[in-house]
Design brief:
The complex is a heterodimer of chains A (about 250) and B (about 200). Chain A is of the alpha+beta class and about 250 residues long. Chain A has helices at about 5-15, 20-35, 35-50, 60-100, 110-115, 180-185, 240-245, and strands at about 130-135, 150-155, 160-165, 170-175, 190-195, 205-210, 215-220, 225-230, 235.
Chain lengths: ~250, ~200
């Protein structure tokens, strides 16, 4: 005969209908002979029954309020599509600019084209340089070719007030500190185009909240590299997986 | 709403049929609101948390992969928001709130029910007494008991929602029930002449 301690947790499982037939039979046999465990079973049953009956109706305003906000977010996203395109175009221009600065591109006209672009999609203002070793962070397939380094780390041209990562499992990680936000933007700057696609579904959506608009990027974190895709194809970001994961705490 | 139908609704929302999201809100708002209400106690705060839960879910819907149930996903968002709210309230009130060691806390000793088994549970528990008792539980015990009792999640679903092993689910629910019984006995809600409660942890919050 087992002692009561063994059966007590099983009583809780029995209340929840989470006990096998064999365990249920053994437990019921014990309860029949043990007044204390029978009392515990009765107590747990009564508490469970009362707790499950204590549901109340939610206020009526919740669903309409949610749908108003959801529609407002959807409208913002539609308006934000042009910013996504602009952001992606800025990234491409950035790669050209960075390549030209690094001496990776042979045609001197490319540098001029990148800097004198009349499209105004991305100009030098979009490529806010700060001290750093851009080339050292290159982890693409052409790493050997790109080992040259130069001054200047780029940042995304996004006028965001805050950002958040949203995982598939519903976790949200907010970036509201302005210094952290600036750092994130520089980590998310493109390091290179890629020669292979990231695998599977994105690990996170990274949403930059720009007030009137939002910029949404899909983020893929792999062992040695992080990809981002803002709608025009994935690229390798400047930040390392460790640097990006530091935001996910 | 069946899981199959639910996944269809989610796909429809992601395809741009925004107003279909209301079907998900309607299906889960009662459970989410009751979860929030039991967790934070105040109806207005619970309504705000419920509203914010669905807005967050909508924002992150594109990253919902469907490898877990939507219900587990939405309850996870809601219960995490409730814990964040309680932490924030605790900081504002400068009252320390322990979340981390609930599973490792000392055992609650149940009263010796064998002495007067016929007198225990002499009266039916009132829902209000249980509600008040649940408010005295540590946050994570309250969370799991509400998800189990009110939202009806199975142990497997609870494990998925809370990102813990099923063994932890089992023991945490058991501890929560024991503590709740101890609280109700102490308040005279289970038996008028119940034995006194001994053990540590009762006054943790």
């Amino acid at each position: 005969m087992r002692d009561c301690e063994y059966y007590r947790e099983k009583i809780s499982c029995l209340i929840d209908d989470e006990l096998s037939e064999q365990d249920t039979a053994e437990l019921m046999e014990h309860i029949a002979d043990c007044p204390e465990c029978k009392a515990l079973y009765d107590a747990f049953s009564a508490v469970s029954s009362a707790a499950s009956e204590s549901m109340v109706e939610p206020p009526e305003h919740i669903a309409p309020a949610v749908m108003r906000e959801v529609n407002a977010i959807a409208a913002k996203r539609k308006r934000g599509v042009w910013i996504k395109s602009l952001s992606a175009a800025a990234c491409i221009a950035l790669v050209v600019f960075v390549g030209a600065r690094a001496g990776l591109l042979n045609d001197p006209g490319v540098d001029k084209a990148a800097n004198e672009s009349e499209t105004n999609i991305a100009d030098d203002d979009a490529l806010k340089g700060v001290n750093g070793e851009y080339g050292d962070m290159y982890r693409g397939e052409d790493a050997n070719e790109a080992e040259k380094s130069f001054d200047g780390v780029a940042t995304l041209d996004i006028d965001a007030q805050s950002a958040y990562f949203a995982s598939a499992s519903g976790d949200m990680y907010y970036v509201e500190d302005s210094a952290e936000l600036e750092k994130l933007k520089s980590l998310m700057a493109p390091l290179t185009d890629i020669k292979r696609a990231p695998e599977g579904e994105p690990d996170y959506n990274l949403v930059f909240d720009c007030g009137e608009n939002v910029v949404v990027m899909e983020i893929y974190i792999e062992d040695d590299v992080v990809f981002a895709d803002s709608g025009d194809g994935p690229y390798v970001v400047a930040g390392t997986p460790e640097e990006i994961k530091a935001y996910l705490k | 709403m069946t899981e199959f139908f639910e996944n269809g609704v989610i796909r429809s929302v992601l395809d741009g049929n925004i107003n279909d999201f209301e079907q998900l809100v309607t299906a889960y708002e009662k459970n989410v609101y009751n979860l929030a209400l039991r967790m934070v106690g105040d109806p207005d705060d619970a309504a705000d948390i419920t509203q914010e839960t669905f807005i967050k879910a909508y924002r992150a819907l594109g990253s919902f992969r469907g490898d877990s149930k939507f219900s587990s996903w939405i309850y996870r968002i809601a219960s995490n928001m409730c814990l964040d709210f309680l932490r924030s309230r605790s900081r504002r009130a400068q009252v320390p709130l322990s979340f981390e060691n609930e599973d490792a806390e000392g055992e609650i000793e149940l009263p010796d029910m064998s002495q007067n088994p016929e007198k225990v549970l002499m009266k039916k528990l009132s829902m209000e007494a249980v509600r008040r008792g649940m408010e005295k539980l540590p946050p994570k015990q309250r969370q799991i008991l509400v998800l189990r009792e009110l939202c009806g999640l199975s142990y497997a679903e609870l494990a998925q929602t809370l990102s813990v092993e099923e063994g932890t689910v089992k023991s945490r629910i058991f501890r929560a029930r024991k503590r709740l019984c101890a609280i109700l006995l102490g308040d005279g809600n289970i038996s008028d002449d119940a034995a006194s409660i001994s053990g540590k942890g009762d006054t943790e919050e």
